[in-house]
C-alpha cells in the first residue's frame, strides 16, 4: 500500500503529526476538506493537495481526488485576522524546522525576524543580495550563512534547472538558477525546508509597475494567478536537492488579510507594499523596512553572469545560449 505525505498539515492552527494526518486521510479522504498547511497526500488511489497548490502533486490544487474523480475540495476553516497576526501565525506554523532564504529585502527579513531560524543568502561575489543580507542579519542579530557562488558553477547549475523547469526563457532560467543555489545550500546545511518570501509582491503591490496602473487591485488579482506557475518552477528546482519551499505569505490567513485591505494601503504616492512595511517596522528599523531591493535574479548577480557566459560562448542573445542546453 502506497501512503505518502509531502509537506505538512494543520487544522485550525494546530499542526498535525505526520502519522495523524495520514491516518485521518486513510480513514476518510474527505477529512482533507479541513486541512490547512502545505501538503500533497496520497493513499490507496486517493490524493489531496493544499488549497493554493504550494506543494507539487498529481492532483489539482485544492482538490480531493479518488480513482480519477474529484470527490471534494480542500477548504479549511481559517479565522479572519489582522495582517500582523496573520503573518505571525503563518510564520509560527512553519518555524519548527528549516532555514530562511534571506535576500535583505523586507519580505524575507520579516519572515527571518519572526521565525527564529537560521538564514542563508546566495550571490555572486560582491552581489547586492549578499551585501544586503549581511547588513540585515547584522541589524536583526540573525544567524546567516553567506554563500558566494563561483562563476565556474553557474553553467552546470543552469544545465540542471533547464531540465526541470516548464518555461525555459531567460528570466525563468535566471530565477531558477538562483533557487538552485539557495536549495543546494539549504541541503548542505542539513535542511529540507526553505522559507521564502514568495507571494509578497503579488499580494501587497511590490512591483514598480503597480505605480503606473489605474486599477491596482485588478492587477494584483491577475498577478496572483501567476504564482502557481512560479511555484511549479521553483519547487521543481528545490526537488533537485530533496527540498521543499515553504511560503508564509501564501498562507490562507495572510491572503485573506491582504485582500481585505484597500488598494491604497498597498500602493500610494510612489510607495509600494505599504501595509507590509508598516507591519515590518514593528520588528526592524524603519530604513530596513522601507529599503528597496532588486529581484533575486539581478540581486544575486546570476542574470548578469548568464549573460556573460552567453557572450563568452559567442551568443549575442541569452535565448540562443539557452537553446544550446535544450539540444543536449
Task: Explain this structure.
The protein contains 15 helices and eleven strands. It has 328 residues and is of the alpha/beta class. The strands form two sheets. The chain has a six-stranded antiparallel beta sheet, with helices on one face. Strands 9-8-7-10-11 form a five-stranded parallel beta sheet, with helices on both faces. The chain is globular and about 60 Å long.
Shape: globular
What's the structural domain tally? 2
Radius of gyration: 20 Å
Strand-residue fraction? 15-25%
Number of helices: 15
Stretches where pLDDT is under 50 for at least 5 consecutive residues are none
CATH topology of the largest domain: Rossmann fold
Strand order of the largest sheet: 2-1-3-4-5-6
State the separation between the terminal residues, measured CA to CA. Answer: 38 Å
CATH architecture of the largest domain, by name, is 3-Layer(aba) Sandwich
CATH superfamily of the largest domain: HUPs
What structural class do helix, strand and pairing data support?
alpha/beta
Biggest sheet record: 6 strands, antiparallel
Number of strands: 11
Helical content (DSSP H or I, runs of 4+):
40-55%
SSE string, helices as H and strands as E: EEHEEEEHEHEHEHHEHHHEHHHHHH
Supply the CATH class of the largest domain.
Alpha Beta
Present the secondary structure layout.
Layout: E1 3-11, E2 14-15, H1 18-27, E3 36-43, E4 46-49, E5 63-66, E6 69-73, H2 83-93, E7 99-101, H3 106-115, E8 119-124, H4 128-140, E9 144-149, H5 151-162, H6 170-188, E10 193-195, H7 200-204, H8 216-224, H9 227-239, E11 244-246, H10 252-259, H11 274-280, H12 286-290, H13 296-299, H14 302-312, H15 318-326
Parallel strand pairs: 7-8, 7-10, 8-9, 10-11
Antiparallel strand pairs: 1-2, 1-3, 3-4, 4-5, 5-6
Helix pairs in contact: 2-10, 5-6, 6-9, 14-15
Amino acid at each position: 500500500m502506497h501512503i505518502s505525505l509531502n509537506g505538512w498539515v494543520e487544522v485550525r492552527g494546530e499542526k498535525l503529526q505526520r502519522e495523524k494526518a495520514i491516518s485521518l486521510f486513510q480513514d476518510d479522504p474527505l477529512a482533507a476538506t479541513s486541512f490547512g498547511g502545505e501538503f500533497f497526500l496520497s493513499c490507496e488511489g486517493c490524493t489531496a493537495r493544499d488549497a493554493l497548490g504550494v506543494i507539487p502533486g498529481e492532483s489539482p490544487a485544492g482538490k480531493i481526488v479518488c480513482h480519477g474523480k474529484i470527490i471534494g475540495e480542500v477548504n479549511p476553516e481559517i479565522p479572519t485576522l489582522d495582517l500582523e497576526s496573520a503573518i505571525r501565525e503563518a510564520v509560527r506554523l512553519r518555524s519548527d524546522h528549516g532555514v530562511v532564504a534571506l535576500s535583505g529585502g523586507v519580505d524575507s527579513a520579516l519572515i527571518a525576524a519572526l521565525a527564529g531560524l537560521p538564514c542563508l543568502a546566495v550571490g555572486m561575489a560582491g552581489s547586492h543580495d549578499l551585501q544586503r543580507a549581511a547588513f540585515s542579519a547584522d541589524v536583526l542579530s540573525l544567524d546567516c550563512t553567506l554563500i558566494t557562488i563561483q562563476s565556474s558553477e553557474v553553467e552546470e547549475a543552469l544545465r540542471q534547472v533547464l531540465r526541470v523547469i516548464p518555461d525555459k526563457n531567460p528570466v525563468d532560467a535566471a530565477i531558477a538558477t538562483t533557487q538552485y543555489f539557495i536549495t543546494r545550500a539549504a541541503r548542505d546545511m542539513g535542511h529540507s525546508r526553505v522559507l521564502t518570501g514568495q507571494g509578497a509582491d503579488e499580494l501587497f503591490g511590490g512591483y514598480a509597475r503597480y505605480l503606473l496602473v489605474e486599477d491596482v487591485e485588478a492587477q494584483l488579482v491577475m498577478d496572483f494567478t501567476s504564482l502557481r506557475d512560479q511555484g511549479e518552477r521553483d519547487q521543481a528546482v528545490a526537488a533537485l536537492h530533496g527540498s521543499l519551499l515553504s511560503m508564509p505569505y501564501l498562507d490562507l490567513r495572510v491572503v485573506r488579510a491582504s485582500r481585505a485591505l484597500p488598494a491604497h494601503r498597498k500602493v500610494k504616492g510612489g510607495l509600494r507594499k505599504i501595509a507590509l512595511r508598516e507591519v515590518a517596522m514593528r520588528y526592524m528599523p524603519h530604513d530596513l523596512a522601507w529599503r528597496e531591493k532588486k529581484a533575486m535574479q539581478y540581486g544575486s548577480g546570476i542574470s548578469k553572469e548568464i549573460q556573460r557566459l552567453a557572450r563568452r560562448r559567442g551568443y549575442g542573445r541569452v535565448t540562443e545560449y539557452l537553446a544550446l542546453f535544450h539540444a543536449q
